[in-house]
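Q: Convert this sequence to structure tokens.
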Amino acid sequence: MSREEIRQMGLSCGADVVGFAAVEDYKSKRAPDPKTILPGIRSMVVMGFRELDGGLASDIGRISMHSRLGQMDQTKSCTFRMAKAIEDRYKVKAAPILASYPLNMAAPFMGLVADISLRHAAVAAGLGNFGRHNLVISPRFGTRIIFTAILTDMVLASDPPVTEVLCDECGLCVASCPASALDEEGKTEDLKCLRNSQPFGIGGAIGFIRKFTAAPPEQQKAMIIDPRFLSLYQASFIGFQYECFRCMAVCPACVDA
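A:
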């Protein structure tokens, strides 16, 4: 089997970068052991898809989300097609891991920890290293990149790690975070980030339901035409919907690479 053949398959289907990680090189303190996700796993094929600069140029989160939704469709299709091609060609197991739901909503994870940390997988696959914002910085695309992965029982050696320091600790991400979720170095305060970046997610829905059920009938009539309820309704069929991309948008690392 040829690593370069697999890499070219990924690039041909729409990925911008493709890397490989042996499972023993993948390290995540919070995510489960990959061997519990796919028995017999030996390696990961990690693919990166760049964010459009134009999508992040707007201060309106809704406009950035238009770009992200298109990107998510591309990543889902590409990752599934890659996994299927690997199974068909090499007669091995290949499980696609997407950059989206579903997540484990049970305790202790509560939807805050993915089955596979795609950030740590990307680092293990030599596609970048961590910045002050706890996102992966790619040497080619900076922070403006999202990742997917394919778990496989195929034996693939890891690509060399990125040893160059890509984050210059400028602090723009910390200063620009409206939720102050990055104040503590090395940690993203998940709930602070989610309340601000996904106001129409499950937390927002629960809050609205509680207020609605406690409100008198006349107030309920007003609430169902309130923009907040209409945004919650819209999010119910769009899926998870980010309203904040600041840490990605302001990061200057490698933007002219």
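The CA atoms of residues 172 and 250 lie 6 Å apart.
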